[in-house]
Specification:
2 copies of one chain form a homodimer. By secondary structure, the first copy, chain A, is mostly helical. Chain A has 5 helices and 2 strands. In chain A, a hairpin with a 2-residue loop joins strand 1 and strand 2. The model of chain A has no long low-confidence stretch (mean pLDDT 89). The first copy, chain A, binds a DNA duplex (30 and 30 nucleotides) through helix 2. Chains A, B: GO terms for molecular function: DNA binding; DNA-binding transcription factor activity. Chains A, B: Keywords: Coiled coil, DNA-binding, Transcription, Transcription regulation. Chains A, B: This is MerR family transcriptional regulator.
DNA sequence: ACTCAGCTTTACGTTAACGTAAAGCTTAAG
DNA sequence: CTTAAGCTTTACGTTAACGTAAAGCTGAGT
């Protein structure tokens, strides 16, 4: 028997280094639907995975609303052609955004390289000056 | 003589598809310091470049405050060793963030691939059903 | 002289994503 | 029994990044 892992809200918040308030907020926004035992929330593996996805999405600049629509689409029984087409359209759009970000990151990296190189040059210059 | 390109605020806003309000706001936050001719703002190439950088930073989830500190550092005469060290530390930190984002993007791309594949499978399934 | 487009400042409004405080339940430890 | 830790709900506060009027200046065209 594989015992399924369970988490309290405090455990989850420590795991992901966020506040319990945030987790409750995500639930309020219907991004999480934890089980209840008495008054307390109980999170299972799937909730943990969801939370991970939420945070990843946030790091990429997605709003909670956007993340929710993706979740909803993912959860939906995609049984009609129009729904599937919609889903494909959205994933394509997200893909475009991600590609744009990839581009942006590459550009920024190059600029960081440049800044770094200049800094190091200046540092060695200063060193030389001190040694004379 | 290379005539330097000039832009009004309206031209810039159309160029980058943002509102003039945003551009003025960036100035208010000291991210831009356009020249003035009478009451009107005039933007040169360097301002345009700055704006491009601002928007790129935003797409990567940087706050205007963060972007400003980067600009400030870039503009500063980095003439003391401590300043240079600070700059290097910051660029390293930004680099870490960007690497994290790269990772996130790759993960998300893979999941998008998965979702897409499933959608297309379902679509062909529906097609088959219709053709019988 | 008048209008109109485009610019200006000033100022209040708005939204997202929480922070923070207050007040109360609940369960294990002393 | 009573702390204490950890959970709960309710509710008001906060910050960033603008949106959206309102009211006025200004140069080109008719």
């Amino acid at each position: 028997m594989t015992q399924e892992q369970q988490y309290s809200i405090g455990e989850l918040s420590r795991l992901f280094d966020i506040t319990a308030r945030s987790i409750r907020f995500y639930e309020e926004q219907e991004l999480l639907v934890p089980e209840r035992q008495g008054q307390s929330r109980i999170y299972h593996l799937k909730d943990k995975v969801r939370l991970k996805l939420i945070l990843r999405g946030k790091r990429l600049g997605f709003s909670l609303a956007e993340i929710k629509t993706l979740f909803d689409l993912y959860d939906t029984n995609l049984n009609s052609a129009p729904q599937l087409e919609t889903m494909l359209a959205i994933t394509e759009q997200k893909r475009a955004v991600l590609n744009q970000q990839l581009n942006d990151i590459q550009m920024l990296m190059i600029e960081l390289d440049d800044v770094e190189a200049r800094c190091k040059d200046e540092l060695t210059e200063l060193q030389r000056g001190n040694n004379l």
